Amino acid sequence: xxxxxxLGLNRSLQTLSTRLRSAVSTSSVDFGLLQSKRTAVMATxxxxxxxxxxxxxxDKMSTDSVNSLNVSDIDLMQELTVDQxxxxxxxxxxxxxxxxxxxxxxxxxxxxxEPDELRERFDFDIKDKGENSEKLLQLLRDTFKYSVLPANxxxxxxxxxxxxxxxxxxxxxxxxxxxxxxxxxxxxxxxLMEHEVIKRLRESIGxxxxxxxxxxxxxxxxxxxxxxxxxxxxxxxxxxxxLFGLPRLVCFTSEHSHYSIKKGASFLGxxxxxxxxxxxxxxxxxxxxxxxxxxxxxxxxxxxxxxxxATSGTxxxxxxxxxxxxxxxxxxxxxxxxxxxxxxxxxxxxxxxKHLLKGVERTNSLAWCQHKMMGVPLQCSAFLMRDNIGLMHxxxxxxxxxxxxxxxxxxxxxxxxxxxxQCGRKVxxxxxxxxxxxxxxxxxxxxxxxxxxxxxxxVKLLTEREGFKLVTQPECTNVCFWYTPPSIxxxxxxxxxKKLLHKVAPIIKERMVRAxxxxxxxxxxxxxxxxxxHIFSNAKTSKRDVEFIVNEIDRLGQDITVKDIENYQxxxxx
Length: 574
Fold this sequence. Notes:
Order of helices and strands: HHHHHHEHHEHHEHEHEHEEEHHEEHEEHH
Structural class: alpha/beta
Radius of gyration: 30 Å
Shape: globular
Helix content: 40-55%
Strand order of the largest sheet: 2-8-7-6-5-3-4
Strand content: 5-15%
Number of strands: 12
Largest sheet: 7 strands, mixed
Distance between the termini: 71 Å
């Protein structure tokens, strides 16, 4: 019996069953008579369906029949293959464990086990013979159980967190279609979406004309800028001959900038010795006067100042470099000005906070990770460029004839693959496009404002609570602070005190991980001993969650003694 035939027959049975239940609920019923009527209806419906649509009751299902199936029909399908049935059941597991439970405050952020113990609890082995569906479904549940859950509203460890339903659906659809965003030929809808989303992002930062592309992470976006700055100055010569014969090229970035600039210098052949670090003020902002001083020194040494990387939202303090002043200097010395706005770029979505990027429209290029403050599922990172249309294509194209044939029947300007350094490229635009469609610009603005408001409320709680001290007043949604346990409060602020304070954050971090109640990062910076870096990037974090953070850190650290700190020091050294 074919699938469509069974679906039609089951619909008839469902209709009859509904009528029978109604009859039973209202009167006494002769069940023998009803059974006879049911059999008669079944026979009549079979004849009617075969007579009206004989072509679809053979072994082949027509396209129209497949298109007419509803989600509810899936439960009636008796001919699902093993992998299709697994997929259907897996989606139930994912929704329950990865969406409903993961977002629940009562769920642990992490159920932590040491590596050796986790290996014993979880079946990591890859065998010659495959497992059955029940075992695979249990492995899915175990994966959720033992994983860190960034969807939890009490995960604050990284610059990404939370879970957006629209973005999640966008990610799933992207993976379902499983296309590559390199030609209009294979990804027509996604190519046009990327054009539209890149245009919207450029407009939001004030790039009236320009170019852009989604790339695998902010580090790669920063490296795009470094490479294109070099190509913009030296053209095809550097593309064909490399660095041979070129003068020493120098890049500038702040002391608090992301490490990807040094990685990029190594990867692209500049050399890390040719990355000059510019001093920052107490808030972590690049000092323009020190930048110009170092540019002039570079010129006097006979080298070429090529590239300046400003930061809008530094990784630790969340500081925003003064873009207008930096733009003045770069225009004066003919230097490419790039902005690493991977973290703080999303502030432009809010009319209240966009002033933090004042002057961004004067920069040459920008990196922006929408998977951070905008809450798009990982990964979603855009490289944007002001003017210089065609520069990316000229600088990166290889003209592979099996992909980018010059005699295609459509407008080849939509074949974006040759302007990037990848071949296959995951579609990252769709999930952001779908979130724009669902929320609109105003919806994103509201979420950004919630994250900033939560950070300011947290600062208020910290300043009012004994034992907590801010490292610096935040600009972005990064809140950096120390917690001092009662055992060392009141000690003089000397080297001995700093040495003890340096170990407090690691001790509390271990306790919170083992408890599973929170996840917050910590680090030293310069002469500062270890402090907590708390990140607000989940719009579903409530004021109650913010209050819980302060109370929980105080609970976890209240009983830390000087002896605990000293013993922890010895454990680390061993």
